[in-house]
Write a structure and sequence with these properties.
Length: 119
């Protein structure tokens, strides 16, 4: 199992790729909604899995007290991350809301990185 710092950095890398995807609108929904859905599903499944794994690792670090963070922040960050995954592909939210989600995610990821680097 990877450690909290590595998992957090990998999640941050995924977030950065999603931001680029959102801003460049590299993937546009095609007229074939079924095909687009399966393309999105194929590309996002590993990201959703990484978010689930990150949540497990961070919650474990909280339990063993190597990380001082409230579990509700972890749950909220996971939820926000899942939202940006979908918004990055479907562009169904305005940029202000998207940026608010990114800031919330960054806040928690930064706390974890700082704590784990000091640990």
């Amino acid at each position: 199992m990877m450690n909290s710092l590595t998992a957090t950095r990998q999640l941050n890398d995924e977030k950065n790729k999603l931001v680029v995807l959102y801003k460049t609108k590299q993937i546009e929904p095609s007229s074939d909604k079924h095909a687009f859905f399966y393309e999105v599903k194929e590309q996002t499944t590993p990201i959703f899995a990484a978010v689930d794994e990150w949540e497990k690792i961070i919650n474990e670090a909280i339990k063993d007290q190597s990380l001082k963070l409230h579990p509700s922040l972890v749950a909220q960050t996971k939820e926000n991350f899942e939202l940006i995954i979908m918004h990055s592909y479907y562009h169904d939210v305005d940029e202000k809301r998207y940026q608010e989600l990114i800031k919330s995610i960054d806040y928690v990821l930064d706390i974890i990185e700082q704590e784990m680097e000091a640990y």
